[in-house]
Structures are given as structure tokens and as C-alpha cells.
From TrEMBL:
Its EC number is 2.4.2.10. It comes from Thermosporothrix hazakensis. Residues 35-158 form the Phosphoribosyltransferase domain. Catalyzes the transfer of a ribosyl phosphate group from 5-phosphoribose 1-diphosphate to orotate, leading to the formation of orotidine monophosphate (OMP). Orotate binds at T129, R157. Keywords: Glycosyltransferase, Magnesium, Pyrimidine biosynthesis, Transferase. It comes from the Bacteria. InterPro entries: OPRT, PRTase-like, PRTase_dom. This is Orotate phosphoribosyltransferase. PANTHER family: OROTATE PHOSPHORIBOSYLTRANSFERASE, URIDINE 5'-MONOPHOSPHATE SYNTHASE. Its cofactor is Mg(2+). It catalyses: orotidine 5'-phosphate + diphosphate = orotate + 5-phospho-alpha-D-ribose 1-diphosphate. Belongs to the purine/pyrimidine phosphoribosyltransferase family. PyrE subfamily. GO terms for biological process: 'de novo' UMP biosynthetic process; pyrimidine nucleobase biosynthetic process.
Length: 212
């Protein structure tokens, strides 16, 4: 884990000492900047190999990820699972999210649903904060009669448990429990610490607060 943490730190994927707003809406002083990882294909490739090695390659038929960054992870992880197995190929597909109205749940398009039924599936995600995107993806796979073997993530920063994602075993390359707060309980908001608008959802948070 120390070596993996070093990779994250080396490319600036762990940023501290600011007021961040996560996609989940929670606030923290630490941000895991997955985008800093994605610009380094060799690092992402090596991390995905580690994720692939957590499974018996012959037992995984399909790797599924939620959009957007997860697409890269699903491709590389499936690639290494295929390299490790004696025969056959592990496929990679991704789940998309509804854009408007009430339907913001994940769904399969592009005919990807036909690769799920009766298959052994691993779900991959970059950062787990609440685990909600991973949980929705797992539920989607189950609705299409896929069998979930496990959930793999680059980083579990929210202390997400298997129970929180439907009883699925979680394999995270690093566990980084961070103290996070709701907007109402956020000490940085209380003390007037400026919101970081370069990383995370700070810009959208401020726009929404201004329009409220």
C-alpha cells in the first residue's frame, strides 16, 4: 500500500489543506484527485493490473464500470484479466447515467446489457466516497441477471463497507478514511474558509448557493 500511496502522491493525486466539496455533496480538507492519475497511462495501467490480480482470471467474464473515469479502469482491468487467463477473453462494458428529470439512475445502452445475463461480473470504480455510484452499478448488473463477484476501487476514501454496496466484497488498492462533513456541519463553512473551485464540485456548490 505504501508503494501505491507513493504513486498517488507522486502525480499530485492527493491534495490537502483546502476546502473541498465532493460529488456526494460532503465537504473535507483532503481531495483525492483521480484526474491527476488518468493523464498517466503507465500508472493507471499498473494500478489496473493490481486490481486484476485480486481475482481468479478464469472466473471473471465481464468488467463493468460507471461512467466516466471508470471506463478507462474497466478496459485496463479486463485487458490484464485476459492476459492472465489461460483461454478466452474478459470483456469490458460501462454503465451510463440518466441526464435529466427523475431518471438519474445508471443504465446500459449500446447493447451492453446482452453481455451481462448469466455472467460473472467485477465492478470497478476509481474513488469510493459514499459508494452510491458503485451500488447503483451493482444493482443494474443484478437487474440484468449478472452475478457480481466483487467491487474493486483505486481508493476507498469513505470507509465504504460491503453492506453499503449490496453485500459485495470490496477490494480497494488503498484505504484512506477521510473526515467529511455535511454542508450544515462543515467547520470550514462555519469558519468562512474559501471553497476550492479548481478541484471537486466547489464551483457548482457556490453557484447553487448563490442561486438559492
Amino acid at each position: 500500500m505504501t508503494e501505491i500511496m507513493h504513486l498517488f502522491e507522486q502525480v499530485g493525486a492527493i491534495v490537502m489543506g483546502s476546502h473541498f466539496v465532493y460529488s456526494s455533496g460532503r465537504h473535507s480538507s483532503v481531495y483525492v484527485n483521480k484526474d491527476a492519475l488518468y493523464v498517466h497511462p503507465t500508472i493507471i495501467s499498473s494500478l489496473c493490473r493490481l486490481m486484476a490480480e485480486q481475482y481468479e482470471p478464469e472466473t471473471v467474464d465481464v468488467v463493468v464500470a460507471p461512467v466516466l473515469g471508470g471506463i478507462v479502469l474497466s478496459q485496463w482491468t479486463a485487458y490484464y484479466l485476459t492476459q492472465l487467463r489461460k483461454q478466452g477473453e474478459t470483456l469490458a462494458v460501462f454503465a451510463e447515467k440518466g441526464a435529466d428529470g427523475v431518471d438519474k439512475q445508471f443504465f446500459f445502452s449500446r447493447g451492453y446489457d446482452k453481455y451481462i445475463a448469466g455472467k460473472n461480473v467485477v465492478v470497478v470504480e476509481d474513488i469510493l466516497t459514499t459508494g452510491n455510484s458503485a451500488k447503483q452499478t451493482i444493482e443494474l448488473v443484478r437487474r440484468h441477471n449478472g452475478h457480481i463477484i466483487g467491487l474493486s476501487a483505486l481508493c476507498n476514501r469513505g470507509g465504504v463497507t460491503p453492506e453499503a454496496v449490496g453485500g459485495v466484497p470490496i477490494h480497494a488498492l488503498i484505504e484512506l478514511p477521510l473526515e467529511t462533513y455535511t454542508e450544515e456541519a462543515c467547520p470550514f463553512c462555519r469558519d468562512g474558509v474559501p471553497v476550492n473551485t479548481e478541484l471537486g464540485k466547489g464551483r457548482a456548490f457556490l453557484a447553487k448557493r448563490k442561486g438559492a
